[in-house]
Amino acid sequence: MLKISIVETATEQTIILQGRLSEPWVSELREIWQRAKESCGARKCVVDLNDTTGIDQDGVNLLEVMCKEGAKFVAKGVLTKYTVKCLMAKIAKSGS
């Protein structure tokens, strides 16, 4: 199960994920992300992964797309931080 919350301020829009990022919630997050990036404007888009308990490959693939489209990530926990670190390294290596 995944709980998705959105917190908006004048300078940023934060998508807070709590639980496991896997199907069917990957599809739900994809839809939310599409709407969020359109409404973000000049604000920073942040994805808070602090309370994420697991991310499957579909979730990682979506996070990669989100990163390429401007999302910034906040993460704690060894596995989540490692996942974000690997994702960032992959994007840097590909030059995107």
What do you see in this structure?
With 96 residues, the chain is an alpha/beta fold. The chain has a single domain (2-94), classed as Transcription Regulator spoIIAA (2-Layer Sandwich), CATH 3.30.750. The chain is 47% helix and 33% strand. The chain contains 3 helices and 4 strands; from the N terminus they run ββαβαβα. It has a 4-stranded mixed beta sheet with strand order 1-2-3-4. α1 (25-40) packs parallel to α2 and α2 (57-68) packs across α3 (78-94). It starts with a strand and ends with a helix. The mean pLDDT is 93.
- Class from secondary-structure proportions: alpha/beta
Ends apart, CA distance between termini:
31 Å
The largest pleated sheet is described as: 4 strands, mixed
Q: Which CATH top level class fits?
A: Alpha Beta
Envelope shape? globular
Topology:
Elements: E1 2-8, E2 12-21, H1 25-40, E3 44-55, H2 57-68, E4 72-74, H3 78-94
Parallel strand pairs: 2-3, 3-4
Antiparallel strand pairs: 1-2
Helix pairs in contact: 1-2, 2-3
Keywords:
96 residues; alpha/beta; Transcription Regulator spoIIAA; four-stranded mixed β-sheet; 3 helices; 4 strands; 33% strand; globular
Summarize the structure.
By secondary structure, this protein is an alpha/beta fold.
